[in-house]
């Protein structure tokens, strides 16, 4: 078994949106039998995980380049394109 | 879990405003007056909206969910406004803007602990027909009842601050 992936879930203030996204990813991981190290944080805290994270899923805009992929999670809130986003996330987790 | 403050005095219908700042100020100051949020809430929401936009393009009419850190909040509450003419908000996580007609201003008093409330709120955003019903409605009590039903607040009527 490969190493547990560390997934960061971030929004601007760390209250509203990331909670919903965090839960959706948790469920997705369960469905696919994946063990994840999920961290729900504020976007300003991403820097602290720069060396350890495998993926950033966020509802906040980030202009910064990271060494891990960044996926926009707005679809979890609007329902539009959510299957596409889930596929994208799953694709990164199964790499 | 603390009770949610939501009633007709937190609902505005058919507002005519020119900018997102004006709308946020109007809604937030009302919450400040009711002591649901602290004085700094208004500016904090305006600043946060600049940095992290909250516009959500849905099927037919866009929604915005302005909010800020829990430290500015006294009591968990939601305020709703419908706009006569759409006003541009930044799209969450994007460079785009979107014409918003419905505002759900959130004042949350705990981090990470209102998952079911938020999920029910998001379910409203995903229901196109419901969004346009709310947008066309003039009667605040009708809007209140629709939202309460969808958020399952009626189950805890006794706890509601009506």
Automatic annotation (TrEMBL), chain A:
InterPro entries: PTS_EIIB-like_sf (IPR036095), PTS_EIIB_2 (IPR013011), PTS_EIIB_2/3 (IPR003501)
Keywords on record: Transferase
Sequence ranges assigned to domain PTS EIIB type-2 in this UniProt record: 5-95
Gene Ontology process terms (BP): phosphoenolpyruvate-dependent sugar phosphotransferase system
Cited Gene3D superfamilies: 3.40.50.2300
Gene Ontology MF annotations: protein-N(PI)-phosphohistidine-sugar phosphotransferase activity
Pfam families xref list: PTS_IIB
Name under which the protein is recorded: PTS galactitol transporter subunit IIB
Automatic annotation (TrEMBL), chain B:
Name the record gives this protein: PTS galactitol transporter subunit IIA
PROSITE patterns in UniProt: PTS_EIIA_TYPE_2 (PS51094)
PTS EIIA type-2 domain span: 4-150
UniProt superkingdom: Bacteria
Natural source organism: Halolactibacillus alkaliphilus
InterPro entries in UniProt: PTrfase/Anion_transptr, PTS_EIIA_type-2_dom, PTS_SugarTrans_NitroReg
Coiled coil, from the record: none
Pfam families hit by this protein: PTS_EIIA_2
């Amino acid at each position: 078994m490969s190493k547990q992936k560390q997934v960061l879930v971030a929004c601007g203030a760390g209250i509203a949106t990331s909670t919903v996204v965090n839960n959706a990813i948790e469920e997705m991981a369960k469905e696919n039998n994946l063990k994840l190290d999920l961290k729900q944080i504020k976007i300003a805290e991403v820097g602290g995980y720069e060396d350890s994270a495998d993926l950033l899923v966020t509802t906040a805009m980030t202009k910064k380049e990271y060494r891990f992929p960044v996926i926009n999670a707005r679809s979890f809130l609007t329902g539009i394109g959510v299957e596409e986003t889930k596929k994208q996330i799953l694709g990164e987790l199964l790499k | 879990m603390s009770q949610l403050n939501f009633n007709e005095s937190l609902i505005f219908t058919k507002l005519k405003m020119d900018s997102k700042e004006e709308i946020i100020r109007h809604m937030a100051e009302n919450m400040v007056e009711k002591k649901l949020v602290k004085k700094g809430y208004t500016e904090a929401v305006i600043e946060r909206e600049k940095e992290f936009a909250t516009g959500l393009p849905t099927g037919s009419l866009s929604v915005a969910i302005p909010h800020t850190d829990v430290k500015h909040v006294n009591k968990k509450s939601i305020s709703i406004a419908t706009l006569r003419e759409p006003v541009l908000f930044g799209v969450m996580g994007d460079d785009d803007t979107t014409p918003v007609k419905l505002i759900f201003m959130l004042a949350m008093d705990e981090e990470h602990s209102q998952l079911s409330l938020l999920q029910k709120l998001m379910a409203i955003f995903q229901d196109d027909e419901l969004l346009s019903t709310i947008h066309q409605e003039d009667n605040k009590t009708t809007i209140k009842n629709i939202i309460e039903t969808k958020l399952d607040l009626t189950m805890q009527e006794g706890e509601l601050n009506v």
